[in-house]
């Protein structure tokens, strides 16, 4: 089997799913003859709009938002090597629907308000692990029984 060129490898990867530039750099690095060749291929892909970090952020956020909070999505984007400015812009977009998304995730998992403090803790830890903020968790789980307990 003939060896694939660096650009062909990149196109093959991008045909399956979106990749951030940093992820592509990591995947293609071992196959590059030298770093300059790799950077040249990445620049060409970006110039032809075959690879776009903005498109990656939009796609990643779209697929993860129904199940996860903004903090978790921002962490994943940062881990993928996305520029902080793009991450902050996406956080602003996600913040608009944070409570609604958290409520949907919570309803799908539990369906009814917690009856005991232990259940409340279990529900809140579930949402926190999903990347929702403490404030969002409190708003989603707020019930008259627990609101009276918060005043003490």
UniProtKB/TrEMBL annotation:
Keyword Ion transport appears in the UniProt entry: no
Signal peptide (UniProt feature, chain positions): none
GO annotation, cellular component aspect: cytoplasm
Subcellular location: Cytoplasm
Ranges for domain RecX first three-helical: 7-43
Sequence ranges assigned to domain RecX third three-helical in this UniProt record: 98-141
Record GO biological process: regulation of DNA repair
Primary gene name: recX
Residue intervals of the RecX second three-helical domain: 52-89
Protein biosynthesis among keywords: no
A Pfam family: RecX_HTH1
Protein name: Regulatory protein RecX
Main localization of the protein described in the UniProt heading: cytoplasm
Record-stated family: Belongs to the RecX family.
Function: Modulates RecA activity.
UniProt cross-references to InterPro entries, sorted A to Z: RecX_HTH_1st, RecX_HTH_2nd, RecX_HTH_3rd, Regulatory_RecX, WH-like_DNA-bd_sf
Keywords from the named record: Cytoplasm
């Amino acid at each position: 089997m003939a060896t694939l060129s660096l650009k062909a490898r990149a196109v093959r990867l991008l045909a399956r799913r979106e990749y951030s530039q940093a992820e592509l750099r990591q995947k293609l690095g071992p196959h590059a003859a030298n770093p300059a060749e790799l950077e040249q291929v990445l620049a060409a892909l970006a110039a032809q709009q075959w690879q776009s970090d903005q498109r990656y952020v939009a796609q990643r956020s779209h697929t993860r938002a129904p199940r996860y909070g903004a903090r978790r999505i921002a962490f994943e984007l940062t881990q993928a090597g996305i520029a902080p400015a793009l991450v902050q812009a996406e956080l602003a977009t996600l913040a608009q629907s944070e409570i609604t998304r958290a409520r949907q995730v919570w309803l799908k998992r539990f369906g009814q308000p917690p009856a005991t403090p232990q259940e409340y803790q279990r529900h809140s830890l579930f949402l926190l692990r999903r990347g929702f903020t403490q404030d969002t968790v409190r708003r989603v789980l707020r019930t008259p029984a627990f609101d009276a307990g918060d005043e003490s």
